[in-house]
Design brief:
Elements (H helix, E strand, L loop, with lengths): L1 H8 L2 E4 H6 L1 H4 L3 E6 L2 E7 L1 H14 L2 H15 L6 H7 L5
Parallel strand pairs: 1-2
Antiparallel strand pairs: 2-3
Length: 94
């Protein structure tokens, strides 16, 4: 889910007027739709929406929640290392 939140932080912004002029250029990926200074909605491409729904379904799974709890316990006990540490060690940017 944090990947999706990162994507939301990098969202594009389009006004209603931009969308009316050229919707195919204004609506790409995840787009915040604004009227003046107010957000009136979000546009998600089919791919982004599918990915988001898949993540939501996974997070609602009891087996997934159990695996996450176990992984957190193992990280606290220093039995496993977070991916971010391994990525940093090998110079991979995530």
């Amino acid at each position: 889910m944090t990947d999706k939140l990162n994507v939301l932080a990098q969202e594009s912004v389009a006004s209603i007027r931009d969308i009316q002029k050229n919707p195919s250029r204004a609506l790409r990926g995840i787009t915040r739709v604004v009227r003046g200074s107010k957000t009136v909605g979000f546009f998600f491409s089919n791919e982004e929406l599918g990915d988001l729904l898949e993540d939501i379904q996974a997070f609602s799974s009891s087996s997934f929640k159990t695996r996450v709890k176990e992984a957190r316990r193992e990280m606290k006990a220093a039995k496993t290392v977070p991916f971010s540490v391994v990525a940093k060690r090998y110079g991979v940017r995530i």
